[in-house]
Amino acid sequence: MMGNGILEAHFFSRPTADxxxxxxxxxxxxxxxxxxxxLGALQAGGQVCLVQPQVVLGGQFTAQGxxxxxxxxxLTPYELIPPDQRDLNQLRDSEYFALSRSQRQFRxxxxxxxxxxxxxxxxxxxxxxxxxxxTPIVASDxxxxxxxxYLEQGVLxxxxxxxxxxxxxxxxxxxxxxxxxxxxxxxxRFTVKAQITIEATDLGDVLELGAIPSRVxxxxxxQTQEAALPEDPRPECQQAITFCAVVERSDQNQPPxxxxxxxxQEPWLQSSDxxxxxxxxxxxxxxxxxxxxxxxxxxxxxxxxxxESDAVRPGDITVLNWATSPLGIDGGPPDPSAPLGCxxxxxxGCLLGGTLKQRQEEVKRARDRTQAYLHYLQTHGHPExxxxxxxxWTDDGIALEPYIREARRGIALTTIRHEDVAAxxxxxxxxxxxxxxxxxIGQYHYLDVHPNHATGHVELGxxxxxxxxxxxLSALIPIxxxxxxxxxxxxxxxxxxxxxxxMHPMEWAIGEAGGHLAAFALQQSVTVQQVAQQPQLRExxxxxxxxxxxxxxxxxxxxxxxxxxxxxxxxTVLGILPIEDxxxxxxxxxxxIGRDRFYLSLVKALGWHLELPNGSSLSLEIAIRILMERGxxxxxxxxxxxxxxxxxxxxxxxxxxxxxxxxxxxADFDHGLTATERMTHRYTARLFWRxxxxxxxx
Length: 698
Fold this sequence. Notes:
Elements: E1 20-28, H1 32-43, E2 48-51, H2 95-98, H3 101-113, H4 136-153, E3 156-159, E4 162-170, E5 175-183, E6 189-199, H5 205-209, E7 214-215, H6 221-224, E8 241-242, E9 245-249, E10 278-282, E11 285-289, H7 297-300, E12 302-304, E13 317-320, E14 324-326, E15 340-342, E16 345-346, H8 356-379, E17 385-387, E18 409-410, E19 438-442, E20 469-472, E21 484-486, H9 498-501, H10 504-524, H11 528-533, H12 535-547, H13 565-573, H14 595-605, H15 620-629, H16 636-639, H17 647-656, H18 659-662, H19 681-697
Parallel strand pairs: 1-2, 1-6, 2-3, 6-21
Antiparallel strand pairs: 4-5, 5-6, 7-18, 8-16, 9-13, 9-17, 10-11, 12-13, 14-15, 19-20
Helix pairs in contact: 1-4, 1-10, 3-4, 12-13, 14-15, 14-19
């Protein structure tokens, strides 16, 4: 392990009373997205001020005590995929295609700094719900390592222990100019003015303080056009929160935590609800997993082990973060009609839509519930459980902040709906909606809603399963407010789709895209709305992201370390090389390209399809006609045959179209193939990428 997870004191700024700071980019919040936005903006050359409520960076991974990343199935290590379910074309290391370069570097850092028996392994903690788990301290130290150089260079101002109290706005146009804060330690009030502000709090506080159009809880069908929703909104239907706790299985009994006030009296503190068993229904019987079973609760989010084994041993450390399980009856199997047994989820209240005092009371109750659960475990069979406050920056091993699953959501230019994500709306396909303005990708295999106890939660039925999805740039842009970027769980999702977009890898992707967006807009001297709404600017921004190793579309056989990654990603999302097979995630870079697809893509790559009348779509027949009108000696029958095209034929076509006169470098295009070989998808992408760059510069 590394240090204590906290940056050196001299890296923090503590504004004086009534001080006013001015910065190009202000990021508000302590979420995972706030960190990723900060890192992204800095990597893009921006100057940033990050104001957050804690001294530790990282949100879910650190202050919220949940460093066991909630990964989708596409991040399953290849060797753990059943042989009959493997895609033989997939890259063996999924982190190269499912994550950005910077997020993979973060994960690699964690592995390197939490070895197991002096070896670096893929999943140091060995949790069964996550493909990567480490202690909060290791996660924090790796986050700090990536950000420290920018603090040393003076391009990042980091202000801890501060909460927003007011949003500075102008009218006509409506624009965010900055935010006022209060330091929770000194009680000093200070102001940060910025050209662009990123809302990256865990609850959407900037939206509430600025009265910026937003929604809380479950919307109505009229608000989002999601067919699964009822006619009326249910703002009180929100996701439960959880205070995680980090505990060790020690080799001797420990003094138990005291029960909180109201234990076995208040509804949320009833010991009769708690359980340490995990029951699962198999085809014809129930199966029980005890607390320390390899498939039980302790190993569910185990974050530390000294040996590479599924067995739980003394010295192992876990995060307690458990929702519900059926309760066994008198040592036997559960009664399906009986109430569920509980862990430390807190579904009794709402954090959104009420007063600050109400929120604080709910947070206190949620923390008490985790204390009660830990007390129950220590006094009901597990006296050896040892709270590890040294790993949570607290005295009792309970996290600094609750794990937040849902925020106030901004109303954005695009709202990502159930119909854009759920598998049922994409029959016989392996991807959900690929937005043309995609700035990132994410995947969680189902819409994971932890409902609170409010009545009226939507039942999704067969709509729970989700396909790999993309992040539209327009979901980061509020509809009527300039100078603001939405991030974390405040982007343009709905109550339903937030349940997939809230996971660790996706929240990183959301923050990363927003940070790069802020820096890009300032460098181009444009607004973020212009980047989203002007195709040329949007495409330039997508180019920038892909060059940074940020995937925009799902391909499982092209990684961010591939030399043609940017070309393949951008040309696909722009529709120049549209997705051909919607039943696989393959691009098949070394496979030959069909003649018909090549002609269609060539016309798109050169922008000639833009001359079509409004409402006309490009077909193969139209593409052939355009090419022939411009001098290509194309055989329409041969073009429609679907046969592949050779390198020689491509060179002849380029010469016939006089493209070498447009930019001299066409003539010496390095395709890497002999004249008689067939043109591949890879070299088609490389050629069209050159076309695109050359026509832009010529």
